[in-house]
Amino acid sequence: MSTCMTYLLQGSRHLWYPSKASVNVRRAVQRSYASISAADLKFGQPLHETHPHILNPGELTPGISALEYAHRRSRLANRLPKNSIAVLAASEVKYRAAGIFYEYRQDTNFFYLTGFNEPGALAVIANDGSGNNHIFHLYVREKDARAELWEGARSGTRAAIDVFNADETGDITRIGDILPDIISGATEVYTDITTLDPKSVLYRTLYGSGVSERIKNFVRGGKVKSLRPILNELRAVKSEDEVVQLRRVGQMSGRAFTESVRQTFTKEKDLCSFLEYQFKVNGCDTSAFVPVVGGGPNGLSIHYTSNNDILRDGDLVLVDAGGESGSYISDISRTWPVNGKFTDAQRDLYTAVLNVQRSCVSLCRESAGYSLDQLHGIAENTLKDQLQQLGFDVSGDAMGILFPHHLGHHVGLDVHDCPGYSRSHKLKAGNCITIEPGIYVPDNRRWPDKFRGIGIRIEDSVCVGDDNPIVLTPEAVKEIDDIEALRG
């Protein structure tokens, strides 16, 4: 068989495989088949054979192989009781107006286990009781020439097996006939699909078909449990390939920041547009979230996203943004002078925050034995000492006002990755987190006059190491001398 992916158009359903990405090499029946190169086919997402400028050989999604996706499913199945199942639904398309849709983004738990990046899909992962294997069901939208004329290509059920390595597949429109039998044969069901939007197509398909009664019976019997806590534990520790992908998107995003610092802007929206353009020019697919571009006092609002004010000479601008590539994200915050030169007061306050940030980054190692909550306590106490030296009254509720947010959060496929995963867990090698101390000084007589109205945040994405942290975003300039040198 050639090294390119090939569809064999007759015979067994297990006849097509990529030379490196196949999890189980599926032997073709020994007879003649008509064949067609995968590069000539249309799929619902890029593959190496159709988009070699995006994916390397063996990758199912950028940076991640089909083998890794299979390992993830196997690890999940091993966490489930014997003969139980996990059920996950793909994200639905969301609309801002009739016929006008938002950019699609897959449910990240679904994506983490399948690599499948289309709506209208359901995955079932079953612990088959053997102790070292699992069964992977993937139900998707079937190929439909008329629908694809309007909506773009679909991968279809054939690719669910041949590309995404499902053991069983079927048309998602028939899921109401298929899923009840799968559920009935399970001892327990782990799922979060009970929270589906009632307006979604998948909800109507499931709950208008008798499946709802089967699920309700399991709920009443205590046999339906949330899947999210198990997946949070799996996703919190990144694989080597995930860290490489996060480093790659950190590099792209960091360079975009540095190029933005180099320029002179008079409007927040112009800086925002330039930064998002630079994300894509450097290789990102899109922005990971709506950027914060807060000039002057706007920087005191943690999630300021209006980005419609003037950037004034003498003020600082606080920017919180990041790029996304292959669904992995970067999260960076930088603060710099609009005119390229720090005033003495800005320099003093910036140095205080930078000292705290450097100190906390150095503690992002498993051997240090800290949790994110403990690092936050260290950051708060260190920042308090720094502010006292600058003449701040830090008694009472001062730190809750001046530093109102947490030091960090997990990052990965989501900006706030693994939602619900406790910050009290000790950090492990492979955890990827942000370290983002900040200081936000209200225009109030309680605070030294020269610092009022200044907001500063410095944030990097960091991978926890055994004995040393890996900073994922060092290309984003943050030293005072480097920032000023960029503007000459």
UniProtKB/TrEMBL annotation:
Organism: Monascus purpureus (Red mold)
Every Aminopeptidase P N-terminal domain range: 64-200
Protein name: Xaa-Pro aminopeptidase
CDD domains in the cross-refs: Prolidase
Highest taxon of the lineage: Eukaryota
PANTHER family documented for this protein: XAA-PRO AMINOPEPTIDASE 3
Functional description taken from the UniProt entry: Catalyzes the removal of a penultimate prolyl residue from the N-termini of peptides.
Keywords: Aminopeptidase, Hydrolase, Manganese, Metal-binding, Metalloprotease, Protease
EC code: 3.4.11.9
GO MF, any single term: manganese ion binding
Cofactor: Mn(2+)
Keyword Hydrolase listed: yes
Family: Belongs to the peptidase M24B family.
GO biological process: proteolysis
Catalyzed reactions: Release of any N-terminal amino acid, including proline, that is linked to proline, even from a dipeptide or tripeptide
One GO CC annotation: mitochondrion
